[in-house]
Description:
With 934 residues, this protein is α/β, with parallel strands linked by helices. It has four domains: 257 residues, Rossmann fold, CATH 3.40.50.1010; 225 residues, 2-Layer Sandwich (Nucleotidyltransferase, domain 5); 105 residues, Taq DNA Polymerase, Chain T, domain 4, CATH 1.20.1060; 139 residues, Orthogonal Bundle (DNA polymerase, domain 1), CATH 1.10.150.20. Helices cover 47% and strands 11% of the residues. The chain contains 38 helices and 23 strands. The chain has a six-stranded mixed beta sheet. The chain has a six-stranded mixed beta sheet with strand order 7-10-9-8-11-12, with helices on both faces. A four-stranded antiparallel beta sheet has the order 21-22-18-23. It binds a DNA duplex (9 and 16 nucleotides) through helix 25, helix 27, strand 16, helix 32 and helix 33.
Amino acid sequence: MTSDAPVFGKGCHLHLIDGSAFIFRAYHALPPLTRKSDGLPVGAVAGFCNMLWKYVTDEHGSDAPTHAAVIFDHSAKTFRNEIYDLYKANRPELPEDLRPQFPLTRHATRAFNIACIEIEGYEADDIIATLACQARKAGGSATIISSDKDLMQLVGDGVDMLDPIKARLIGPDEVREKFGVGPDRVVDVQALAGDSVDNVPGAPGIGIKTAAQLIEEYGDLETLLARADEIKQPKRRQTLIDHAEQIRVSKRLVQLDCDTPLDFTLESLEVRDPEPEALLGFLAEMEFRTLTARVAERLGAEAPAVEAAPPSHAPAAPDLPGIDAAGYERVSDMAALTAWITAIREAGHVAIDTETTGLDEMQAGIVGISLSVRPGAACYVPVGHVAGSGDLFGSSALVEGQLPLDEVLAALKPVLEDPAILKIGQNLKYDWKILARHGIRMAPLADTMLMSYALNAGTHNHGMDELAERYLGHKCIPIKELIGSGKAQIGFAQVAIDKAVPYAAEDAEVTLRLWQHFAPMLPAEKVTTVYETLERPLVPVLAEMEMAGIRVDGDTLKRMSNAFAQKMAQLEDEIHGLAGEKFNVGSPKQLGEILFDKMGLAGGKTGKTGAYSTSADVLEDLAVEHDLAARVLDWRQVSKLKSTYTDALQGHVNPDTGRVHTSYSIAGAQTGRLASTDPNLQNIPVRSEDGRRIREAFVAAPGYRLVSLDYSQIELRILAHVADIPALKQAFRDGIDIHAMTASQMFGVPVEGMDPMIRRQAKAINFGVIYGISGFGLSRNLRIPRAEAQAFIDTYFERFPEIRAYMDATVAGAKEDGAVRTLFGRRINTPGINQSGPAAGGARRAAINAPIQGAAADIIRRAMIRMPAAIAHLPARMLLQVHDELVFEVEEGAVEDLIAAARRVMEAAAEPAVRLSVPLVVDAGSGANWAEAH
DNA sequence: TTGTTCACG
DNA sequence: GACGTACGTGAACAAA
Length: 934
């Protein structure tokens, strides 16, 4: 406490600056600047400093402060969340380039020599309220520099507000203008009207106007609620009676707390002049050239040099020290780890990577954790390295000089879960799941793989080694140098620690550098929204789905496998008999020789290898006359079902959970679709009756049901919207059979009583259009002459000319920009579009298809991201995604509620970003297993 | 490791 | 006039 400062009292004037509001305004008002030397995002800091500088150089007239402070929100969770858990729950996640700037704005405030205040568990508004009350009580006055309406309840009796944008003073009259009541009744009005921004519920259907009128009439909120039955309007009366409790909760939410515990006095906030050295030092460190010069001039000090450096997105930033794997630190004791944690808090971000005993996140153990806070500063914390693989039983004695895993995790947990510290990773879903199994749920996240995907989909893949080489000009240590390959491969736990340190720490540093490299490119390439709304938020959602897994009945699979084995043996005998010799039915080469050389059937060779094609297409033609081909087709189907599904799936059942846990790759497909691996649960059979039965093995836990919801015709609906095809849009609005409508338009036949063959042809054309149709492709698909197929297509384009226009425009755009975009802004690069020759056709079709397939992928991503909050109140979990289908597991009694909630989310998933001109329709089903639910 | 085949949307 | 052709995936197996 400062004992020498004069006592705060009459004649003293306190300025309370709403720091968080300053930051957000600065962030949104300025382009995303980055520090030249290393790419650190500093746009909000720059704006914040400019605003503070403007503030301190302002004369303030008669309002000049004797005391001042900048007040910040400490973290997202406050005591209000205990009153109402959904308070501020609908706030969009912070842009990731803003979060690391928070600590810098605190530094900036101190550099300006202004008191910097934040208190855990309290909002800035409560601290401001407390200070304003204390100033008033002490006989002084206060001005709150903010335009936040929530602070207006404090106005009056020596307290006023200053709107820093409009430079307008807000007194009791202005508050009355805004709320229709005086400052002392503002909370009553807010409690009734609610606030959608902060998610304060209020009374449904009552806005500020009505609320003010009611409060004016009845005096205050409690009187109003007590006398609610006197209200004349029946609906309004009922609303107040029904929601009385909710309104009281709302009042507690909006009522600011004037009793925030403070560990400082008003006196300590006395205005001080900035110290030139500290302020200029900070500004120069941030590399704010103009502001540094301006401040230096005003303060009569010499401006420190602001280092000039080339922009950070040049490949292999030459101003940075090279990546030096030899210089990394091995962390072996708590003191060293604590020092790193301090450095992380200081930086506001950390790049993290975990090394594990295996690649299956559901089973792998942690071997070590690497961290990096800036280029040149990275470490590796080994925790699970074991002595060499010398003895036969795989000695598992831990190597000396490692911290215990639980101590390391306990120390890191507060940092990894701190909402003010950004966790940066490459494919963070992996590390997220590993840490989640140890009770740590990392947030917030930045993922360099996803940044690259948003920027570079279609151009190259997004693995770290490739990104490091392309964008940092750095070749990473290959993992093979540590663990070997093939039969002699060892686990990471067996790698010597002194070899693991450079490898692991390098991964963290490379990730950090990639983040710095990509961060400014997202806004420059206009993919920030894609990254922020479709990529980054999906990580924890998918991680939870994958950890949930789906129950698979191993016994059922085993029975099926046995039945399939029998059938295969039987078919094999038949095939050998028909061929007149024994051969490997699974060998296309041997089969081709039997069919085309020995039996002399008609059939061609394929290009590269010169081998005969024996694909289903070819065999189906032969099967008309030759039983051998028909039997081989049967054998292949059974063999596929057995080897890929009934056999393989049994091996994927996790012994701990009894469930199958797939892994989704977010950045695998070019179009924005997910891909499922280990095992692939997006291609479980459904089209054939035998195959479909495999879905009976995917079951709900006892007491639960599986629920499947899928979008009906989503790609055609998107086509109708983006290509703006009136006939198609109207058909979707009317809810009529789209393929029958197409057939009717093309062939002039009525929808009623239509020949199923005609409808089937129209359906094939509708799909073909999405894929970039050709006469050849359609003729093969429908098994009709090519001329006939071409005639269909011509008719189709005549009836729906907008489709050709759309295709031409899409291809032209791809040639112009080297990329196409979905409705939601996802960019898919089309590097091959200007090729000539046979490849050109493929690139053209891919460019036509990508915006449609991609938009559908965007829509279901949006639904998935919103889903956890939308079903949080139900005993249900989202388990699987199959491109246009979501599968849930839900308690028996809640099936209908789940379907209603999930359908609502899915059907509205495009909004508000895109207002589709066709409805999205979702079909739903439920059952004890996936076959029943689908 | 590469190519073929086939499961899905 | 010829060239090749539906779009997007992953896994298993044979063959090199």
